[in-house]
Amino acid sequence: MWLSVSATTRSPRPGEVDGLHYRFVSHEEFDRLVAAGEMLEWAVVHGQNRYGTPRGPVEDKIRAGVPVLLEIDLQGARQVREAVQTMDGLDACFVFLAPPSFAELERRLVGRGTESAEERERRLATARVELAAESEFDVTIVNDEVHRATDELMSVMGVPALTR
Ligand SMILES: Nc1ncnc2c1ncn2[C@@H]1O[C@H](COP(=O)(O)OP(=O)(O)OP(=O)(O)O)[C@@H](O)[C@H]1O
Ligand SMILES: Nc1nc2c(ncn2[C@@H]2O[C@H](COP(=O)(O)O)[C@@H](O)[C@H]2O)c(=O)[nH]1
């Protein structure tokens, strides 16, 4: 399994590494990637920053027969659903990763401590919109205990559970 590294115009949080967590790019570079058709999908997420999936590495992995995981928002998932329909023989499964409850989602976001109260409210508003779209997805996995949820995701993807 290969986890795609997204490009984003968001600034890195402490501890985030360019090329590992994201490719942190300027607005100009993001514009260039979009104009050159190098994004499989992209969206403005939480009404603020742009995030997108670089097309090349995903296509390389698919050609090599490696299952690819995209961790993207609802708008991106809708774009990928459209794109997949035009790609012969490609199989995609759309997984909705749900929090155990809205209160727990809020508690975790507060615990992460990376946003201002205003920014957090924006993210919670996005979460409400996304939770309302759960039925668009093929499978829901509840992110209660991280290792259990990861194992369930690996099972959906048909790959052996990660060794820990
Ligand atoms: N299963 C879990 N158990 C406990 N804490 C979790 C679990 N999953 C995620 N968290 C914590 O919740 C916080 C938010 O998770 P994450 O950073 O993955 O956000 P996100 O889903 O990408 O949401 P956003 O789009 O707002 O960033 C993080 O501090 C993360 O460590
Ligand atoms: N459409 C896309 N959405 C993406 C991509 N990478 C991440 N995301 C979404 O953004 C939020 C916010 O991320 P954060 O790192 O600022 O907390 C994340 O939860 C995803 O839903 C992408 O490539 N395309």
Automatic annotation (TrEMBL):
It catalyses: GMP + ATP = GDP + ADP. CDD domains: GMPK. Residues 1-158 form the Guanylate kinase-like domain. Signal peptide: none annotated. SMART domains: GuKc. Gene3D superfamilies: Guanylate Kinase phosphate binding domain, P-loop containing nucleotide triphosphate hydrolases. It comes from the Bacteria. Keywords: ATP-binding, Kinase, Nucleotide-binding, Transferase. GO terms for molecular function: kinase activity. Its EC number is 2.7.4.8. Pfam families: Guanylate_kin. InterPro entries: GK/Ca_channel_bsu (IPR008145), Guanylate_kin-like_dom (IPR008144), Guanylate_kinase (IPR017665), Guanylate_kinase_CS (IPR020590), P-loop_NTPase (IPR027417). Essential for recycling GMP and indirectly, cGMP. Belongs to the guanylate kinase family. This is Guanylate kinase.
